[in-house]
Amino acid sequence: MFSSLLPKPKHTTYDDSLRITLKTSSSKQVLVPNQINTVSKRETAIQSSYQDTIPLKVKYPNLKHHFPRTYDESTVQDTKATIDNLIQKLNGNDPNADNDKTSFVNYNPSSSSDSRVIQIKNYKEDPMLPPKFKLRKNRHKDPSPPPPILKNDSNLPKLTKEDRAKWNIPSAISNWKNNLGYTIDLNKRVMAANGGMDPSEASPDFNLEKFGELSSALENADKQARDEIKLRNELLKEQALQNQAEKEQLLKNLAEKTRSKRSFNPSHSSNKKSRY
């Protein structure tokens, strides 16, 4: 047996005079009294019909409201007073603050009979002082890692060798840089040039046999260039030795000429000795 009736309140007085007994009609419908607000002490509106749930603007579209409104002059004065108060606070002239208020207290110590007058003032804090409290950032912890995604591999087909070869990605090979001097096979270069395809699957315009001819031609050209450089250096060396021999021979001839001149003029040599 279920009932919607609540028990009597424990911590408040229960007044039987406020209890309402609703009447029922012949069709077993509950009849709500029209003036139910007069029974209760509180001013509550009970919506007992559908018409009570319709908003007033929908129910009475031409209804004029007379809400209490403030006058413009009083609003302007209140706003001006509030703004002036804020400006005075920013300038340091707070009318409500008692910074300059001083008080005098007569102090009589117990140890001595002399009384003292103490002046009490509010402490003015220096605005240039550093902050007393350190603002710490709210360091959030790293979020937890995402949960692993578990999949059932029992129903998946097994990977074949052909499929694995298709997914194989060849290493990147540069045709311009080889800093470590690795020897790279031609097959790998061909695969890198064809985007990972086998040489057999390459286009027919690509001839693999020409690589050998190209490498041999480059070797022959390199060898021929080295031989030419060697011959040129030998010729330059022989020419330099010949020029040096000619200069030495010229110096020898000049020395012999000067000796012969001195031997034909003995008076010149005697005068030179007498001077020293």
UniProtKB/TrEMBL annotation:
Every SKI-interacting protein SKIP SNW domain range: 107-262
Location of the region described as Disordered in the Swiss-Prot/TrEMBL record: 128-157, 247-276
Pfam families to which the protein is assigned, alphabetical: SKIP_SNW
UniProt GO cellular component terms: spliceosomal complex
Basic and acidic residues bias locations: 247-258
Signal peptide per UniProt: none
Record's subcellular location: Nucleus
An annotated GO BP: mRNA splicing, via spliceosome
Keyword tags: mRNA processing, mRNA splicing, Nucleus, Spliceosome
Description of how the protein assembles with itself and partners: Associated with the spliceosome.
Function: Involved in pre-mRNA splicing.
Family assignment from sequence similarity: Belongs to the SNW family.
Record protein name field: Pre-mRNA-processing protein 45
Species for this entry: Hyphopichia burtonii NRRL Y-1933
